[in-house]
Design brief:
The complex is a heterodimer of chains A (about 300) and B (about 150). Chain A is mostly helical and about 300 residues long. Chain A has one domain. Chain A contains 13 helices and no strands. In chain A, helix 1 runs antiparallel to helix 3 and helix 7 crosses helix 12. Chain B is an alpha+beta fold. Chain B has one domain. Helix content of chain B is about 40%, strand content about 20%. In chain B, strands 1, 2, 3 and 4 form a 4-stranded antiparallel sheet that branches. The model of chain B has no long low-confidence stretch (mean pLDDT about 95). The chains are: A mainly alpha (about 300), B alpha+beta (about 150). Chains A and B meet through helix 4, helix 5, helix 7, helix 8 and helix 9 of A and helix 2, strand 1, helix 3, helix 4 and helix 5 of B.
C-alpha cells in the first residue's frame, strides 16, 4: 500500500493517480457533503428489524427509531467531516459519520433492502481504514499527500468493484442468459414505473406502453441498448487505469444512471455523485486532456 | 508463499478483483452487497401498493413514509419465510400464504401511517398486489389481488 512516486506500472496493475492537494481537497469536500446528505437521519419509521442484515444479526438498532440522531449528533458528525475535509486527523473526523452511516443503513436495510447506501458507506469505511492505519505516525494527525492519494485510490477501487460485481451477478444469476432475457425487462419497466406511481400518485409517462412494447417487438435492438449497460458495469474497472479512462468511464456510468432514471424511474443520485467526484474529478480535467500521459503513483 | 506472492503481484487489478470476489461471496450484508438488482427476471413482475376501502391508491411516500418498492421487498421477504420453511418457491405460495405475508406488511406500514394525510372519508386501508405479465408477445396486467385489509 506504498503510495510514493515509482516507475509506471502496467495498466492492469493500477495504483493511485498523481492527484494534487487541491483536487483531493475538493473531492473530500464533495464526498463529505454527499455522505452526510445520503444518511437517512429520519429513523423514526424503522421500528423493527424483521429482515436483519449485516450487524443487525448481532445488534438491535431499533432504539434509533425511538431516538433519531438529533442536532447534537448531526453537529458532531459535521464537525468531524470538516476536520476530514481539511485533512486534520481524518480518521477521527470520519469516525462519527462512518458509525451513523453503518448503523442507520443497517437499520433501514433490515426493513427492506435498498441499494443506495452500500457503495458510499464502503468508500467511507475504506477511507477510514487508510487514514486510521498510516505507515508513519505523523500521518495520523496530518496525512501526507501520499496517504490522501491512497485514500482516493481505495475509494475508486470500491466504486469500481461495486459495478463489476453488479455485472458479474447479472451474468451468474441469469445463467449467463441476461442479454437473451432482455425483452422480459419490459415487464420490469412497467413494474418500476407503476411502483413510482404508487409512491407519489404522479401519472406514469405517456410513452411507457409504447417503449415497453417496443422492447418486446424489437428484442435485438433492446439487447443492444441494455447490453451496453451491462458492458459498462462489467468494464467498471477501467476507471482505475488512468485519468482519461476514469473520466470517460465515470461519464459512461453517469449516462447509464441517467438513462435508468428516465426509463425505469429508478434514481441513483448517490452513485452518480460518486462517479462525478472520484472519476470525472472536475478539478483534474486539465490533466485528463493534457497530451503527456499523467503519472501513476506506485 | 513465494508462489502466492507472485500470483498476488500478477493478479490484474488485484485490489479490486479481491474486493469483487469478497462482495460476490458476502452478498447482501450491509454495508456489503453484490448489487443483485435486475440480475434475473421473468415474464412476470408485481408491485405492492396500499389503497383505501374502495381500492383507490394512496400516495405511499406521503401517507406511510415508505414506498411501494420497499413494501414489495418486505412482502417478498415475509412470503419467503413462509414458503422457505416448506422448501417451496414464493411463486408457489397459496392465496392464504400471500394474504398472511400481506397482513404482516400492512401491519408494519399501518404503524407508520400519518393519519392526518389520509384523504377524507378513508375508513380502511388495503394492501394490493398487481402483476404485470408478458404473454404471447403482449404486455398486460391482471386485476389487482387484495392481500390484506385493516380498518382505521
Amino acid at each position: 500500500m506504498n503510495a510514493s512516486i515509482a516507475a509506471p506500472r502496467p495498466w492492469w496493475q493500477p495504483g493511485p493517480f498523481d492527484y494534487s492537494k487541491l483536487e483531493m481537497l475538493v473531492m473530500r469536500a464533495l464526498f463529505a457533503s454527499l455522505l452526510f446528505s445520503s444518511i437517512k437521519w429520519e429513523t423514526a419509521p424503522y421500528k423493527t428489524q424483521r429482515n436483519p442484515t449485516g450487524l443487525a444479526h448481532f445488534f438491535d438498532f431499533t432504539w434509533l427509531s425511538q431516538h433519531p440522531p438529533g442536532l447534537f449528533w448531526q453537529g458532531l458528525t459535521i464537525v468531524g467531516l470538516l476536520a476530514y475535509v481539511f485533512g486534520r486527523a481524518p480518521a477521527l473526523g470520519l469516525a462519527p459519520v462512518c458509525t451513523f452511516a453503518v448503523m442507520i443503513g443497517t437499520l433501514v436495510c433490515s426493513k427492506a433492502m435498498h441499494h443506495s447506501w452500500q457503495a458510499i458507506t464502503l468508500i467511507a469505511l475504506a477511507q477510514f481504514i487508510v487514514y486510521a492505519w498510516p505507515k508513519k505516525k505523523s500521518d495520523w494527525l496530518n496525512p501526507s499527500i501520499e496517504v490522501h492519494r491512497l485514500a482516493t485510490y481505495w475509494s475508486t477501487v470500491v466504486f469500481a468493484a461495486a459495478y463489476v460485481v453488479c455485472g458479474v451477478v447479472k451474468l451468474v444469476n441469469s445463467d449467463f442468459l441476461w442479454i437473451h432475457k432482455v425483452p422480459y425487462l419490459s415487464v420490469q419497466l412497467l413494474k418500476s414505473n407503476w411502483s413510482s406511481y404508487y409512491d407519489t400518485l404522479q401519472p406514469v409517462a405517456d410513452w411507457l406502453p409504447k417503449v415497453t412494447q417496443a422492447i418486446v417487438d424489437y428484442p435485438n435492438l433492446a439487447r443492444l441498448v441494455f447490453g451496453a449497460g451491462l458492458l459498462i458495469e462489467l468494464l467498471g474497472f477501467v476507471v482505475l487505469i488512468n485519468r482519461k479512462w476514469a473520466f470517460w468511464g465515470g461519464l459512461s456510468i453517469i449516462a447509464l444512471h441517467l438513462s435508468i432514471s428516465k426509463v425505469m424511474d429508478l434514481h441513483f443520485e448517490v452513485h452518480m455523485g460518486l462517479a462525478f467526484i472520484f472519476c470525472v474529478n472536475i478539478m483534474g480535467l486539465k490533466k485528463v486532456f493534457q497530451k503527456t500521459e499523467p503519472a501513476v503513483v506506485g | 508463499m513465494k508462489a502466492l506472492r507472485t500470483f498476488w503481484e500478477k493478479l490484474p487489478f488485484r485490489h479490486m478483483t479481491v474486493l469483487v470476489v469478497a462482495l460476490f461471496v458476502i452478498k447482501e450484508q450491509f454495508p456489503f452487497s453484490n448489487f443483485p438488482m435486475y440480475s434475473n427476471f421473468d415474464t412476470e413482475a408485481d408491485v405492492i401498493y396500499i389503497a383505501d376501502q374502495h381500492g383507490n391508491a394512496l400516495a405511499m411516500d406521503e401517507v406511510f413514509r415508505s414506498g411501494s418498492s420497499t413494501a414489495k421487498k418486505a412482502y417478498k421477504k415475509e412470503l419467503g419465510k413462509i414458503t422457505n420453511a416448506q422448501k417451496r418457491d414464493t411463486k408457489q405460495a397459496s392465496p392464504t400464504e400471500r394474504a398472511q405475508a400481506g397482513a404482516i406488511v400492512l401491519g408494519d406500514w399501518y404503524a407508520n401511517m400519518k393519519r392526518e394525510r389520509l384523504p377524507k372519508g378513508t375508513t380502511a386501508v388495503r394492501l394490493y398486489r398487481r402483476t404485470f405479465e408478458l404473454k404471447d408477445g403482449k404486455l398486460g396486467d391482471d386485476t389487482p389481488e387484495l392481500l390484506a385489509e385493516k380498518s382505521l
